[in-house]
Amino acid sequence: MIDSHCHLDLPQLFSSVDSVLERAKSKGITRLLIPGTTPNGWHRQQVLVNSNVSDIDIDIALGIHPYFIEQCELKPALDTLETLLRNNKNVAAVGEIGIDTAINCPLHIQHDVLNAQLSLAKRYRLPVILHHRKSHHLLLAALKQRQFDSGGVVHAFSGSVEVAMQYIEKGFYVGIGGTITYPRGAKTRASVKALFGEFSDRILLETDSPDMPMHGRQGQTNEPAYLIDVVNGLAELLEQDASHIIDITTANYHRLFHRDGLSNPTKKTLAL
Ligand SMILES: [Zn+2]
Description:
Strand content: 5-15%
Bound molecules: zinc ion
Radius of gyration: 17 Å
Number of strands: 8
Helix content: 40-55%
CATH architecture: Alpha-Beta Barrel
Number of domains: 1
Strand order of the largest sheet: 1-2-3-4-5-6-7-8
């Protein structure tokens, strides 16, 4: 079982990462991906990969998250990002990048940073991990305008099946997380059910921990061990075995993030 999106470099999880990984392993997590958020976070990601002695394989993506754009010195950060992508063949994707219309950061700046990072992903033939909030139309337009053809995942997907289809047509995968564990996530549950019928080869699992607590765990720090709640929620929704969902989504993950056959990058160190 693979958690395709968990922020182990953020303080809530980083401070007790050994026990977080131990609990994840006990629930069947075999691999996880840590998306990037800031230059400081990129260094913590490096520490996590290089010091990983757990049985869980760790992949990383590097990028500037919209939440943190205003904390970054953008020019040096983007230059550093380019250097890291050029020198590290073990980076799985560019992300987490995107547009969030609910934050104060001006949209034109978010657009500039997104476009710069889409260009880097294109140059280094890497998929992207997209963050959205009330911004599907803006993201889809940006992908179209850049003729972005390197694929990726729209993470923590919520929305209609029509929107999901627009990403799938652009070669994207759809990240499914805790939203489907909530009764109020009816729209997303319906979308996921429809998608799984025809496009089960485009679904990934994720927690987005430490955020996005699962239904019934509100108020607790989310962590990769709770991915099992998403799997069980999907199994119930789709009336399929949990093991079947795990098998499909594991294959999907490797197809997206390990295109060159590299399946065990944690055995190599990362020089960030
Ligand atoms: Zn995230």
